[in-house]
Predict the structure of Type 1 fimbrial protein.
Amino acid sequence: MVVSALMAVSFHTCAMAEGGTITYTGMITSQTCTINDGSPDFSVKLPTIAVETLMKSGETSGRTPFRIRLSNCDEDLEGVGVFFEPGANTSHKNNRLINLGTAQNVELQILNDDLAPVKLNEGVDAQDVKFVPVKNRGAVLTYFTQYYAEGTPDAGSVESNTQYTVIYP
């Protein structure tokens, strides 16, 4: 009796639902542009501000522009954009950069050239990457960084970093 029950269990088959095929596509290209005259790593220095300019959560201050300059682009390249890579310094709850310095309750926010916040913790499509046309084999992508209060900040240093990738439509 026990043996027949075990045999019945071992020969039990699962019902199968319909399935399908997932196809993944992509493209690998050679480097198509030179970034910042060959210096892709750079720093953005924000102004020193008083604690009083960020007294409550959601306040911003110190908006500072930065540019990613591309040159020597392939002649057939029509547009370029920048994807900011999600990483260890990206806040998963609010898409800003976590402060690695000593000031408390302050983060860094990146804005595109329309002053809309870049969704740092999102993929390429959800980040709403803006592509700019390539003219005379070059392009300039403009962004801004600003302090963002998560509460009343303490005085101290503010520092963070992010990785970025130049992408093509």
Remarks:
- The beta strands are 34-35, 60-71, 79-84, 106-111, 132-133, 139-149, 164-167.
- The CA atoms of residues 33 and 73 lie 4 Å apart.
- The two ends are 67 Å apart (CA to CA).
